[in-house]
Amino acid sequence: MKQFEKDRIIVNDKDKQICGTLGFQEIAMMYSGLPTGILYDIRTGDTIGNIVKSLDQVPEMVANMTRQGVKPNVLRETLGKIYESTVKKIISLTLLELDMPDVKFAFMSLGSTARHEMTLFSDQDNALIIEDLPEDDVQKVRLQLLKFTDMVCAKLNDGGYPYCPGGIMSSNPKWCLTQTEWKKRFSVWISKASPQSILDIHVFFDIELSYGDKSLVTDLKEFINLMIKNNPGFLVHFAKNLLGYKDPIGLLGNIRSETKDGVKSINIKESLMPIVNFARIYSLRYNVSQAGTKQRLSILKDTGVLSEGSYNELMYIFNHLWHLRFYNQVFAHQGLRKVNDEFELNGLTDIERQNLRNVLAGISKFQAKINYDFLGGVSNM
Hints:
Blueprint: E1 8-12, E2 18-23, H1 24-30, H2 35-44, H3 48-55, H4 58-67, H5 72-97, E3 105-110, H6 111-115, E4 126-130, H7 135-158, E5 176-178, H8 179-191, H9 195-198, E6 207-212, H10 214-230, H11 233-242, E7 258-260, E8 263-267, H12 268-285, H13 293-302, H14 308-332, E9 342-344, H15 350-361, H16 363-375
Parallel strand pairs: 4-5
Antiparallel strand pairs: 1-2, 3-4, 3-6, 7-8, 8-9
């Protein structure tokens, strides 16, 4: 219909006789509650109310997909596409409300939103790049764009993407910067890095353009790659920071857990982060521009940085933990409108517990590889 610019299509019966027509509205109703229908409703919505109504269907959609055994990577990508469509639509609607300055800008998604590794209620992490301007114009333009980004972030919050508790949002003047200001910020982060300082900037090494001028993001990524190449000590500090993670496996091979009100649990997000960080640090070393963990690992495999076996093992660990994360949020904490990554161990069968133990134990092998490749330690890979 889009290809031929038609509002309706003719439907034939089995004898090739015309039996009716279908329009966009009927097709959307057929897919209501499914990813295709929700995406269509978001992309064609003309008010924030319509978009919020569409997003309200997402939890049940994820629950249904989880029950049907849909693979975690499909769930992640579906939520990522819904988020990206929402951002683009909200920005488009907001631009209609304002008298915007005539400047180039880029609205960037950061962290899990850039990687398309979101749960149902992931926080929003975003920032804005403004093209370089005459010094006398910068503050005036920034104030105008901050009004714009404040409206965008508020509407994302209304749609179920909560404000970032740490304030990493384009509505924060700290993260609404010109090209040159961003480069100065990354220059300091990379050239004066320490294991402690890196704790606060991980999210800024997962960047994807959500709306605006692509060249601004490309230019920033190229600058980051050049800075890392010229400051090899940065990745050493990065590696030291990553090796601070200790997998929750005790000396006797048991899962170390926290006990609250008699319930033993582990934090699934914390268990996932070593795989995310593994892909991140090798992507920074080998100039992989993609943000998603799966995409990064796939490129590292294809370029010979990772063996086929290591890639398969990493993806097994990653997908298994993501399956538990979705299941945990959809079923164990289904009444909550916020992320809860505390995964209860009490209800696991012996086989499930053993499988989880094996998955968690496998993380240490890849920590050892980081130690060997970046710090000169010992690796068994």
